């Protein structure tokens, strides 16, 4: 049986209002301060929700041997980016179309999870980062900075957030603006990376770094500043990445290496490519961005893309049959940017790893062992990357709808095998999207378990090692 959280909110509202009306209002009307405190308590309780353990997934899932998965909260409003606060046990969830909420283990009901509202803002889209009391959230046009109290799970009362970065392009097809904090060797935050997608599916303006499209920009974060930075003032660190949906630094290297997952363009209308070919091409990608290069790295979009299945249509597109997976090929939007141009890494950097076409990777996290308790991931997974696959909407049969593990260091020959394996996936892909899991955000808790948001199914679930 699924918990009806709408009903829970209504019961909380009615119950607390009844208490206030019956016991406090008749006798305390002259004590305005008490009434305001009581009203504040009422609002907090009215928004609080509890979900007991044992609520099933909306649709069946298959989990890799040695692991298990269970839902900790359901019926959320399009949960996207997630991050743990400084307590290590409270996960903050961007609920697109609603705001930011906090999920934490119940102190009174073992196994249950409590939901409380941190910020109501329908403009939040996806991006979230937390550094102590600093809470970074993105909207379609800005990055906001809140002062957050992890003990009370609240932001500073009566204090508007600071607009940290303004002028983000808000008119494109993809305006989720993924965020990633950059830290120095001591762990001090030094910068914020912000991603931006294209204006259109195949956006020729993205060839120009000054367009601000399909790229990642870096913004320095001094220890004290109240000045709003603008999108145009950010340092461009990579461009030609169609939709930099997930960003993560490799924790095992002293030289900063940023891994970026992106989903390829839909190429259904590209001249010369058959419907059968584009059903399994192009690959989605994991890019490697290294810092300190004197040349601004370009990753191909919109002109170049990556071959996933050369045998997708040997009759209609025989020119790809003998090429290896991962080959760069041109979409022939510009005659000067042909196949040889795309295959020259002086022009176009190929991906570090290719994913099956239409998998739609949206987040990446590296596992750093943080707990030895029951259910924590094994030490053998240390340094590996985990990537969420949102899943296809235009492939037959569907693909994705899961979370994969990518062993690190990356294989030198990704064409010989996938280079990754599923940790969890919807059991019957033929029913997807439907009520299937559609993973988006990933975050490892202090308990060493992996927490995942699933937007269209409205779920937050956890993956742990079986005991």
TrEMBL record:
It holds the Pfam family TrAA12. Coiled coil: none annotated. The chain crosses the membrane at residues 6-25, 32-50. This is Soluble quino protein glucose dehydrogenase. The keyword Transmembrane helix applies. Keywords: Membrane, Transmembrane, Transmembrane helix. Residues 62-465 form the Pyrroloquinoline quinone-dependent pyranose dehydrogenase beta-propeller domain. Residues 206-229 are annotated as: Disordered. The keyword Transmembrane applies. InterPro entries: 6-blade_b-propeller_TolB-like, Beta-prop_PDH, Quinoprot_gluc/sorb_DH_b-prop. Residues 217-229 have a biased composition (Low complexity).
